[in-house]
């Protein structure tokens, strides 16, 4: 790609991602939650030795991960299912036995077990019924730090200012509602 074809970076998007990463940097409970489950959501490989990773949000690679992510695939709509207005998604592979370089972990890792939900213009955080990780903390919600909950909520409010992320959230919220896949809705 020539410089002429490169889209200019938007400073406000960069600032939004930087702020969201900072807000969403609070531990879910006091101490290291990975120790109570063997880092189930941060494994490099599953039980069948398949490599595991994480999808980035639209524009997350371009605005904040490009400088740090080295092991990733670019998935296109031609071969993978994704919302119609999104043409490509970055999938980064997890590293290190007990988690990645935590300072740089993507938004989808910071928000778990919450997912952002936007329905009829109302934003909330939800916990889905379908869980691939069986996170032991889902039944221990009284231990969740208020700073974690507030940080995740406010971080998503920042990210919602980016139209393609708002579209992404709305798309998956509709799917989630249609499938009845909501266990808990905050607040
Ligand atoms: S599955 Fe839950 S307890 Fe385990 S590392 Fe992930 S968030 Fe922490
Ligand atoms: S925090 Fe790191 S190791 Fe864990 S799922 Fe996310 S990218 Fe993978």
- Poorly predicted ranges (pLDDT <50, ≥5 residues)? none
As a percent range, the share of helical residues equals 25-40%
How many β-strands, per DSSP?
Answer: 6
Count of discrete alpha- or pi-helical segments spanning 4 or more residues:
5
Radius of gyration equals 17 Å
What gross morphology would you assign?
globular
Q: Mean pLDDT across all residues, rounded?
A: 90
Distance between the amino and carboxyl termini = 45 Å
The spatial strand order of the largest sheet comes to: 1-3-2
* Strand content range: 5-15%
The total tally of domains equals 1
* Helix-strand makeup class: alpha+beta
Identify the bound ligands: iron/sulfur cluster
Question: What is the structure about, briefly put?
Answer:
By secondary structure, this protein is α+β, with helices and mostly antiparallel strands. Helix content is 29%, strand content 15%.
């Amino acid at each position: 790609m020539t410089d002429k074809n490169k889209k200019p970076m938007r400073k406000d998007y960069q600032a939004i991602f930087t702020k969201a990463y900072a807000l969403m940097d609070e531990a879910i409970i006091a101490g290291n939650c990975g120790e109570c489950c063997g880092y189930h959501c941060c494994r490099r490989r599953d039980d069948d030795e398949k490599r595991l990773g994480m999808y980035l949000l639209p524009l997350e690679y371009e605005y904040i991960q490009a400088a740090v992510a080295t092991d990733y695939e670019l998935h296109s709509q031609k071969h993978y299912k994704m919302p119609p207005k999104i043409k490509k998604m970055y999938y980064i592979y997890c590293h290190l036995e007990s988690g990645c370089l935590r300072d740089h972990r993507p938004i989808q890792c910071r928000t778990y077990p919450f997912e952002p939900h936007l329905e009829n213009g109302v934003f909330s955080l939800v916990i889905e019924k379908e869980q691939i990780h069986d996170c032991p903390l889902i039944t221990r919600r009284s231990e969740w730090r208020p700073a974690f909950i507030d940080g995740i909520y406010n971080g998503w409010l920042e990210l919602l200012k980016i139209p393609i992320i708002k579209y992404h959230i709305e798309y998956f919220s509709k799917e989630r509602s249609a499938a009845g896949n909501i266990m808990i809705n905050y607040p």
